[in-house]
Write a structure and sequence with these properties.
about 260 residues; 8 helices; seven-stranded parallel sheet; single chain; alpha/beta; globular; 7 strands
Length: about 260
């Protein structure tokens, strides 16, 4: 029997081919879960949903009413909700000397307010034993120039997850963050194409290479399963780079 047989999983932000959301959806489907996907680009999510015998709906994460409607639609379609994963998020890079208030407001809306509302509405609809997973980033604890807005947003949601885990523990609902480092995905390709950047990250990673989306999905599968007995945690998938540091821009060589 699959590790998620009989469970219903909602994955928010699953529309990018080769991305974390797609990898988690396929891992959960192989493990026996019924899948509901959502994204702003619902057409892309629908293609992935068709491959996992699931369903996809549009959701704008900056609108709480959209999140509430998405959870309600999942319950209406499948009758229950056991696992909720938020992969959706935004990125903002801006040096402090030119930092604009609107940059902070935008990224906090997407990376803090939206997942907080996702946790709230999903937890209301889950039975004991449910699992909520928010995808975070090593940027919450490691530093390189320009990542202030993004790093701040990820550190903030990790603290909110700890509080949520404390409050929802009485309902036996687990709430954790899943924290990848640099991954080889379509979103990170422009960065990884910079001369020397991949090698610099690999040099700072004790296990010597970047993690893959399948490795992230495997960790998400454990967090969703009944084998997991942890809550309020940051689960890293980064080959140990948190033991060292992010490389600095001046260290990127010519290849």
């Amino acid at each position: 029997m699959g590790r998620l047989n009989g469970k219903v999983a909602l994955i928010l932000g699953a529309s990018t081919r080769g991305g974390i959301g797609e990898a988690i959806a396929k891992a959960y489907a192989r493990a026996g879960a019924k899948i509901m996907l959502s994204a702003r680009r619902v057409e892309d999510a629908e293609q992935i949903a068709s491959e996992v015998s699931g369903k996809a709906l549009r959701c704008d994460v900056t609108r709480e009413e959209d999140i509430a409607a998405l959870v309600a639609a999942t319950l209406e379609h499948y009758g229950r909700l056991d696992v909720a994963v938020d992969v959706a998020g935004g990125h903002a890079s801006e040096p402090f000397d030119t930092l604009k208030p609107e940059t902070l407001r935008r990224i906090l809306e997407i990376n803090v307010v939206a997942p907080a509302m996702f946790i709230k509405h999903c937890a209301r609809s889950m039975s004991p034993g449910g699992s909520i997973i928010i995808v975070s980033s090593h940027s919450s604890e490691l530093t390189t120039p320009g990542i202030g807005p993004y790093a701040c947003s990820k550190a903030s949601i990790e603290r909110l997850v700890q509080v949520a885990a404390f409050e929802y523990g009485a309902k036996q609902i687990r709430v954790n963050t899943l924290s990848p480092s640099m991954l080889d995905t379509p979103m990170s390709k422009p960065a990884l194409d910079r001369p020397g950047l991949r090698g610099a990250y690999e040099k700072e990673t004790p296990l010597g290479r970047l993690a893959t989306v399948d490795e992230v999905a495997g960790t998400a599968l454990w967090l969703a399963s009944d084998e997991c007995f942890t809550t309020g945690d940051r689960i890293r998938v980064g080959g140990g780079i948190h033991l060292r540091r992010f490389p600095l821009p001046e260290e990127f060589g010519s290849g």
